[in-house]
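Course assignment 3, question 2. Fill in each field.
Student: A.L.
Task: Predict the tertiary structure for the chain below.
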Amino acid sequence: MTEEDQLIAWRRELHTWPELSGEEFATTSRLREWLNSAGIRLLDYPLATGLVAEIGSGDTLVALRADIDALPINEASGVSFHSRQPGVMHACGHDLHSAVMLGAALKLKARESELNGRVRLLFQPAEEIARGAREFIAAGVLDQVQAIFGMHNEPNLPTGTFATRGGAFYANADKFRVKVTGKGAHAAHPEQGVDTILVASQIIQGLQGLVSRNFNTLESLVLSITRIDGGKTWNVLPGSVEFGGTARTHDAGVRAELEQRVRQLVETFAEANGAHASLIWQAGPPVLVNDEHWANFSSEVAQQAGYRVQKADLHLGGEDFAFYLQTVPGAFVSIGSGSAAGLHHAAFNPDEASIAPAARYFAELAVQAIQHLNARC
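Answer field:
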């Protein structure tokens, strides 16, 4: 079996047995077994799931990160190695990310004698719930790390394409929940109650107008309502309605103002209708800000590796790699994976031909980053 075939086989095994955020026990065991079989040393950190490996020796230290968790989605990709876990799927490509960094580890192990420094590989859990990076940081995995690099496959880019940008890249990803409480009544006599469905619909309409009419249209800002729950039958006005969604932007000031304006609008609309409304706003990962130097450096190495390199557009997805970049300089990049179905889709099916080139790229990026850091000393 060639090394490329091995990486694809590993990716498929991870795809067949996906695990949700914080539950990646079997995934962690598989990764540990594969890294051990390659003679790659594992570091001991107090982690429930996920693991950290290291290659090389010396004071200079760079890190590569892969995420390992899956999503609560029923797979409909049609592949022969589809998920055997009902309701769970690698619909974001974290199985592919893991295979890429396993491949990079193999390449780096083969060149270990050439390294004048160390490469630390982070196989991180719980990215989808924005918890894993913070757990790794709290455990000390970034101690002594001088630069960190990570990737996400990008189905909207063809295989062989690379993109990144300096500065803001991925958005903050906040979520919110609104509960409207009124007074239930018979549907034939709405005047005897406070119609929570009507109030909730007015709030939702107001929120869309808030984004489109109260913020500069040049700002990267989106607010989406993704769920609503109210009423159980056709002839009763429910006493409460709950809905929720997400808000994304790339500007910290806009992020803070949006939460304040949403809270004010929710309370005002409810009060005007004689109802009560509460808002729970949960901050997700912050804006991912790439170091300008390392973003350019990553692109230069990608050019050398044969990728078609382009500047990435601003991305409204959230990514907890942002927490690492608040601590250590580095860069997050997009690798084209050419899937007809997008991320978080039940039919998502990234091109496995993207794995081996990305593995070679990240190994070379780590080697050149060590050389670059040594030259600056």
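Instructor remarks: The longest strand covers residues 172-181. The radius of gyration is 23 Å.
Grade: pending
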